[in-house]
UniProtKB/TrEMBL annotation, chains A, B:
The keyword Kinase belongs to this UniProt entry's keyword annotation: yes
NCBIfam families for this protein: asp_kinases, PRK09034.1
Keywords annotated in UniProt: Amino-acid biosynthesis, ATP-binding, Diaminopimelate biosynthesis, Kinase, Lysine biosynthesis, Nucleotide-binding, Transferase
Full protein name: Aspartokinase
Entry EC no(s): 2.7.2.4
Length: 452, 452
């Protein structure tokens, strides 16, 4: 069986919902659908989730929220009208919103999670009712009924391992099932939203729970590009990529499929395919455990993310001092900073982190390191871009590193850092911000256009 | 003024001592000499330090040590006879050895330090007396008199910062001074030897103390080779190298001058020259704070050390987990392991250390990491060679990395790791053991023979 998930733009209006149901109904293996809240219908539109945030702001101000309330309901009214459905569902939706506002108006974090859940929840109810009315027996299943049990901290749901056994029972239904994405229910029976990745994570959890043969993730692109199409003209779409490669690419800026959603899948080797709702016949990108590697696809993709900061620390005879690096990392931990890389020389170490990790406490961190660690030199550089060249086969092919450094040298790009080897499937380069787009272009050309 | 230090082979016999004194006396700026214990006179010879160790073993056994005792005295008798000196010094030496054995026979660590100090100490007394008898007023200064005050832990002397002010007073002597290397005196008035680098460290401490203009370190080679002459045929000698470069080269196997001896010098920018006692007119290698860089000398040297072990750790979403790396390093610290590098991927980290750091406790370390850190994969690789390409100018010249990876790729050498950037003056490559000599050769050819 297959679990299919549709993103916000795929379920933004009646026309899109009909496309989505054609896809869902056309394959009897597609037995469970995860839906998002209605997204933008056109570039200037406001997506439902943002309408709900506006409603929430008014409620907690507190201020008159009637107008914001109605704009949320109108989005669903618009869909229901175009689908020519009965309007009784709208009365349910109105009642639910009112109920959440009354119940949680003194508990803002709970209120926010409850209101946000409506975006997906109403859409799931609506689409299930519509599909049934079209003659396909379809059942709406709430996260409570499905058994998507999560931890209780607002906006930070983590699935409980015990949930999976309950989710497996979804296999027993005769009807097709539609489940809203983005939230679960805590053991204290609170609605709690997932921190990132919106509905992707629900799809992944359900796919693992029912032990699906495939998790189909429908979006508005026909797969994952080998490089950012804003940087490289018309890049190729990746046909097949491993979980590990996907994670490395996501890290440095690829955002089509949230890498955290891979976590429930990779241990059980449930493959994912990223497809386009508007071109469902396109093969899309498959995310799998192992892939075949030919010389042309050694490198699966190239990504670059620009928002990194690096701390440089020098201390003579650093490598002889047991515990020095641990002490520095202990200070970062005290400030709740997670770092990404720590390349080192004999007497020096650089610690690379996302700029948002340290921005709010930079001076305190520098002062604490100076006071506690007796360093010879300490400096900070905010303008680092991290370029990742990702490919499972790279390390077995002598000279791949050389092909890439050649392309960069010919383009006169200075490498501030190179880190290769810890991960078997990527090479990391530290670059000046201003070189980053050019670097992606020349490596893309070297690897895919000139042939490696 | 200049401080000069002579290594063991330079003061191994009467003929060498005459050479050394010709050098010392030929330049009136050479006012302080640091001497080593007599080294090997020919390849099959035993150096004095090893004769003393044999004596020590017999004393602590305890067993009859008369024969070992006499062999030590004979080394000095041989020199005294050849120099046609009076033998009264030998009686002093005999008395001193007996006294140390009596005083410390129940305190083995103190006994070892006291006996070892005799190797250098007797030679300094002898050479000072001889030079005076030749008409050059020369004074033996003991480390006690000089003020080489050190910490009290046996075999692990560290100079006390307060010693330098006392050492500065050595400038006041009219005579030439000869000081034995290798040991200092603790504030508890114990003889304590330096842990590494034998007499180099004494020379560096004295040179800093007297604020010398130059520290001349005489050995049996005419300087530092750009690569190991056992690997590369007749490599060039480096004319000038910075402290930082020297340290990086020493780290990975260059052993002409012990890198720890640079520590007292580098902050005060006292230059060092490595020269050959047997060819004192050769210019040698100067170790300085800054050097001029031309395109031919961007890379100052290439070294490779073979005895590294690497721990590979994989954990999904590692980079999101604040404190994960610190936890691993805390475990290493518990086992008193100092690591050298820690290259990382998104979900993986490799920790590189010298094999002798972990050999004795490998299983315990692996078990502790498994038990405490919830890792996905953990493996260990013992066959890692670390190749360092060192040069102050490398990072300012685009394409240096590329020249090197090109040479390695053409030689079909697989790079297990690349780490560039934390140190501004080196690139590190992780290689298979079996590739290490070939790698040094091809990079040497690329950089110095073909011209970079």
């Amino acid at each position: 069986m297959k679990v299919v998930k549709f993103g916000g733009s795929s379920v933004a209006n009646a026309q899109q919902i009909n496309k989505v149901l054609d896809i869902f109904n056309s394959d009897k293996e597609r037995r469970i659908m995860i839906v998002s809240a209605p997204g933008k219908r056109h570039p200037e539109d406001t997506k439902t989730t943002d309408l709900i945030l506006q409603l929430y702001e008014k409620v907690i101000e507190p201020s008159d929220y009637q107008q914001q309330f109605e704009r949320v309901i109108e989005r669903y009214a618009d869909i229901i009208n175009h689908l020519k459905m009965k309007t009784s569902l709208l009365e349910d939706f109105t009642r639910t919103l009112h109920q959440y506002i009354q119940e949680f108006k003194q508990h803002h974090p709970r209120l926010l999670d409850a209101l946000l859940s409506c975006g997906e929840d109403f859409n799931a109810q609506l689409i299930a009712a519509y599909n049934t009315s079209c003659g396909v027996p379809t059942r709406y299943i709430s996260p409570m009924e499905a058994g998507i049990r999560v931890t209780d901290q607002p906006h930070n749901a983590q699935i409980l391992e015990t949930a999976y056994a309950q989710l497996f029972k979804l296999r027993d239904y005769e009807e097709k099932l539609i489940i809203p994405g983005f939230f679960g229910i805590s053991e204290q029976n609170h609605i709690v939203t997932f921190p990132r990745g919106v509905s992707d994570i629900t799809g992944a959890i359900v796919a693992r729970g029912v032990e699906a043969d495939l998790y189909e993730n429908f979006t508005d692109v026909s797969g994952i590009y080998r490089a950012n199409p804003a940087v490289v003209h018309a890049p190729e779409i990746i046909d097949e990529i491993t979980y590990g490669e996907m994670r490395e690419l996501s890290y440095a800026g690829f955002s089509v499929f949230h890498d955290e959603a891979l976590q429930p899948l990779y241990k059980h080797r449930i493959p994912v395919v990223i497809k386009n709702t508007n071109c469902p016949e396109d093969p899309g990108t498959r995310i799998v455990h192992d892939r075949d590697i030919d010389t042309r696809t050694v490198v699966s993709g190239i990504s670059c993310d620009k928002h990194f900061t690096v701390l440089h620390i020098k201390k003579y005879l650093m490598n002889r001092q047991v515990g020095f690096a641990r002490k520095i990392l202990g200070i970062l931990e005290d400030y709740d900073i997670s770092f990404d890389h720590m390349p080192s020389g004999i007497d020096s170490v650089s610690i690379i982190m996302r700029s948002d990790q340290i921005k709010h406490c930079e001076n305190e961190v520098l002062t604490t390191i100076r006071n506690q660690c007796d360093v010879d030199e300490l400096s900070i550089d905010h303008d680092l871009a991290i370029l990742m060249v990702v490919g499972e086969g790279m390390h077995r092919i002598v000279g791949t590193a050389n092909q890439i450094t050649t392309a960069l040298a010919q383009a006169n790009i200075n490498l501030k850092m190179i880190n290769q080897g810890a991960s078997e499937l990527s090479m990391m380069f530290g670059l000046d911000l201003e070189d980053s787009d050019k670097a992606v272009q020349v490596i893309y050309d070297q690897v895919y256009v000139h042939e490696i």
